[in-house]
């Protein structure tokens, strides 16, 4: 079977998920996050918020690639779509919750267009198309610079948080609210018929077709769902950063997301969490190394190199991701 | 009309570079069934090396030579050290590994050289000289045509006239049978990667002085254009890659010229979508579905 | 006279379950040995193991006392063994001429293709056609011609009659005999088509479930009704 999408592994993961009640997991997650926001210092709380925002998109991607077998390098661009939508909305109406919904809707629509094309493509062709999306979309900000203000980007008007909490706490609550809802929605979605269809399509398109699964519809739907997740993540990033610019959504962002889901182990929502944590933790570590060495050049680039090495090594050593390395240990315990 | 002529020659010059770069992608696709998404980053890496050497020696041409040789070595190294060990049961694996290489190369370049744009000198004037009162071509354009033309001719001779070329083709089409006939298939694969990377480096050296400047991500958009060209040509066909490159170059030149340069990236994306959806086997490919 | 090919106790196959068990055989110079047996008996596996396409778990292969057990596939042809694989292995994207040149490419200087074209005039006519344009019989001729371009001493031939008209099969068998007589070429011939294989072979080996069950002169196998019934089913 294809190494990226090992059946037995996801089946085992699926069983493990089935034993957990997703509502309970989400409730527990919410309690943990709220507790953390009162325990952590502001900067850590801010990082926690970032993990939440990343989790939205990695969870969506892990469903798309791990369960459905489609590889997208365009989700950084989809995040940009969500972020810019929210920025434009906020600067006009300043209503956050509807704004986030609008960002999701707009990104979903864009994702549907890409997904329609993607459903007809496979392997390197799909990768190439989505790569093109990731490279080209940020440049649109220069094409329509009256709206998007080119490389400078836009600032995002936001109301101050309630008096009882700090900005960081509020950001963490908003981001994790979004993340937990995303995970819940995806968990419910993937255990039902849609999840079965996706796995069937991934494992054998012909067999799936013979079993009456509409391959194209399943693929487009998977893409649309993951695009919605990316839109939410983008909107949340705009909230955290209080600004949007094309520089925040480079091709490398899409590649980082890819790394996150590959390392986390494709097709597992828990893997998406591992990936999201790494996306925040690795650059932070690289930042500290860079500061210690007194080199600005080192900072960002060290993280880049780090991610690249991890991606290559994981793909050569364990194409199922880190989560796949963990499973044998568990089995020994039984 | 003058403007149209100018844009046509400009487009052919750009297109020649895309053609060379697309040719590099096709070479590896034919040899290994991998689209080398790291091709752009690899070309940038060798260009950095080349300009360092050119600065140190004071000679652009030594730098140019170094770029091509560095491309050969980098290509061979990537195949021997990394790509050879990729599990090819899913086409995604090779793609993901290549993208990992992109991150590594861009990160390392940034650490060594920084992330600022560096000016990259061209060996010839880029001012177009006038023919019959119309500014058409620069010396640099002629250099580009000459270099890409030489690459195409040399590759054609290599593949059609030499035993090594025959071995490379056979190894790509039928590895097991070729082995039985005494062809060192692994070596041919390494050679294919080395040649492709060298051609990619050459294309990078040609395009970086024109508009991009030297930057770790400078080739990203060139990669997209060349990928579009290669897909347009059918991904399996070297001739298709060259024609595809010229077509993409012309289209982008007209679009930049008449609609503005900032529209060009979107035009590439639109073209790629149209090609993938309407001519999934490319304009010139013989057959095979787009599912590999 | 020492044997050309000597195989002792060969066990080979995929992973834990070997397909071949303890196979020993010899081929003398200028001898045509037919390997017979039902589908799945391990006939093609034997050839694939001999040429290194399949990992060998136990045993020894030698050619004129030179140990070839651990040889790399691509070096095989240098020792005088040419393998025409199942399905012929014509490189369909290359022309007839290129396929033939490929066969002799490892030799320096490269041999002339004229003797091959004399042997197969049909191939000379189709010189510039690509492999996919050829008929099944032409492909078989091309595959054999390409193997001969390497000027081997031993030809491993896998199911040459597969999908060919009886007349074409007969031509190919006659050609093998002719080559043997003129050049001393030894052939290890895997065949499903027992009658045509035994019509040219000197020796017949019968494989069953990966083991050699009997080995006799071809004439004996054909004439002895009991043997025929027991091992060949006709």
UniProtKB/TrEMBL annotation, chain A:
The chain crosses the membrane at residues 20-40, 46-64, 71-89, 95-118, 125-144, 170-189, 220-241, 247-266, 273-290, 302-325. The keyword Hydrolase does not apply. It holds the Pfam family BPD_transp_2. It comes from the Bacteria. It is a multi-pass membrane protein. It is found in: Cell membrane. The keyword Cell inner membrane does not apply. Keywords: Cell membrane, Membrane, Transmembrane, Transmembrane helix. This is Branched-chain amino acid ABC transporter permease. It comes from Paractinoplanes ovalisporus.
TrEMBL record, chain B:
It is found in: Cell membrane. It holds the Pfam family BPD_transp_2. It comes from the Bacteria. The chain crosses the membrane at residues 12-29, 36-54, 60-82, 94-114, 142-159, 180-208, 261-278. It is a multi-pass membrane protein. InterPro entries: ABC_transp_permease, BCAA_transport_permease. CDD domains: TM_PBP1_LivH_like. Keywords: Amino-acid transport, Cell membrane, Membrane, Transmembrane, Transmembrane helix, Transport. Belongs to the binding-protein-dependent transport system permease family. LivHM subfamily. This is Branched-chain amino acid ABC transporter permease. The lineage of its organism: Bacteria, Bacillati, Actinomycetota, Actinomycetes, Micromonosporales.
TrEMBL record, chain C:
One of its GO terms (molecular function) is ATP binding. Belongs to the ABC transporter superfamily. SMART domains: AAA. It comes from Paractinoplanes ovalisporus. It holds the Pfam family ABC_tran. PANTHER family: HIGH-AFFINITY BRANCHED-CHAIN AMINO ACID TRANSPORT ATP-BINDING PROTEIN LIVF. This is ABC transporter ATP-binding protein. InterPro entries: AAA+_ATPase, ABC_transporter-like_ATP-bd, ABC_transporter-like_CS, BCAA_Transport_ATP-bd_LivF, P-loop_NTPase. Residues 5-234 form the ABC transporter domain. Keywords: Amino-acid transport, ATP-binding, Nucleotide-binding, Transport. It comes from the Bacteria. PROSITE patterns: ABC_TRANSPORTER_1, ABC_TRANSPORTER_2.
